[in-house]
Amino acid sequence: QKEVEQNSGPLSVPEGAIASLNCTYSDRGSQSFFWYRQYSGKSPELIMSIYSNGDKEDGRFTAQLNKASQYVSLLIRDSQPSDSATYLCAVSSGKLIFGQGTTLQVKP
Amino acid sequence: EAQVTQNPRYLITVTGKKLTVTCSQNMNHEYMSWYRQDPGLGLRQIYYSMNVEVTDKGDVPEGYKVSRKEKRNFPLILESPSPNQTSLYFCASSTGAANKQYFGPGTRLTVT
């Protein structure tokens, strides 16, 4: 069983829509959760951190954490073509464990 | 500017020719790590270091070596590269193993 799971996609949304990216994890003891954005051929860039249950908003991005259900999600409001990238979920479990990423395509 | 740097950014080499990819960070981070990224396989950790002179194997250490003689530097050494080591490599640093990591720009290695 994979420790951090993401749907590889691609997830395709029209410009201006809300993109919803999901991630589940297996270690109930995980305390820290991160979302990275990675453009093709570039390095992962940290965009959100979340540590407690609930929502955390930063501009157009909202991270949601539900430790009881062991999932973390990322919502991108008013999606733009420049948001087209692969989004990596990372979960602390002794060390940082990365999911394989979800590819998001935002179509003009 | 806080950053992680890697050199070279691109490298084409031949099987068996030893090479070193350098990694340096200016954030005084204790923890540093090397990953390789291949299509369909995601980020896989090669080696990590908790501090100076403390290194350990990650998930895919075969064919690689590392050293940590200074806090800021964490070079990756391929003593006898093989074509299956063709990949995109990232160095990362953080304040701890389970904390957010900051990535270098990546090194695209091709071994022929």
Distance between the termini of chain A: 37 Å
- Regions of chain A with pLDDT < 50 over 5+ consecutive residues? none
Number of helices of chain A: 0
Mean pLDDT of chain B: 96
Helix and strand succession of chain A? EEEEEEEEEEE
Give the C-alpha Rg of chain A: 13 Å
Helix fraction bin of chain B: under 10%
Most strands sheet of chain A = 6 strands, mixed
Query: Which outline of chain B best applies?
Result: globular
Please state roughly what percent of the residues of chain A sit in beta strands, choosing from under 5%, 5-15%, 15-25%, 25-35%, 35-45% or over 45%. Answer: over 45%
How much helical structure, as a percent, in the residues of chain A? under 10%
Q: From the helix content, strand content and strand pairing of chain B, which structural class follows? A: mainly beta
Distance between the termini of chain B: 36 Å
The H/E string of chain B reads EEEEEEEEEEE
User: What percent strand of chain B?
Assistant: over 45%
Oligomer: heterodimer
* Radius of gyration of CA atoms of chain B, rounded to a whole number: 13 Å
Number of helices of chain B: 0
| Number of separate strands of chain B | 11
- Please report the two chains with the greatest interface, counting residues with C-beta closer than 8 angstroms to the partner's C-beta: A-B, 21 and 20 residues
Q: Tally of extended strands of chain A?
A: 11
Description:
The complex is a heterodimer of chains A (108) and B (112). Chain A is mostly beta strands. Helices cover 0% and strands 56% of the residues of chain A. Chain A is built from no helices and eleven strands. In chain A, strands 2, 4, 5, 9, 10 and 11 form a six-stranded mixed sheet that branches. The model of chain A has no long low-confidence stretch (mean pLDDT 95). Chain B is mainly beta. In chain B, 0% of the residues lie in helices and 51% in strands. Chain B contains no helices and eleven strands. In chain B, a hairpin with a 3-residue loop joins strand 4 (31-38) and strand 5 (42-51). The mean pLDDT of chain B is 96. The A-B interface holds A 31-32, 34, 41-46, 49, 88, 90, 92-96, 98-101 and B 40-43, 45, 48, 88, 90, 94, 97-106, 108.
